[in-house]
Amino acid sequence: MKNLHHWINGKPSEGSSARYGPVHNPATGNQETQVPFATVDEVDAAVAAAKDAYATWGLSSLAKRSTILFKFRALLDANRDAIAELITAEHGKVHSDALGEVARGLEIVDLACGITVQLKGEL
Known about the structure:
Helices cover 59% and strands 15% of the residues. The chain is flat. By secondary structure, the chain is an alpha+beta fold. It has 2 domains: 1-59, no CATH class; 61-123. Strand 2 and strand 3 form a beta hairpin.
């Protein structure tokens, strides 16, 4: 059985609660994965890491943030088929519809990448 992991402070964390929730493929009804339930300490660690990341992100220049978002967009685009396969397995969408979801996600990242032009204060 495949186990999902938490993602805390930029790296995977298996979880220590020893409790899991099933993840079923909606198309087949079969359980293909399980996800660990987080402990209070794991949730606290994730929140603390997110607060630290937010502070660092907020101090970064717009140019630096845009560069990171453009790299993120390139990764999404390069892996669109694999992402669509995950959407299909976890949400039961047909592959073509899942590809549409990825495309919509890319549009949102495009919007975020272009926000620096709007922040100049010009009318």
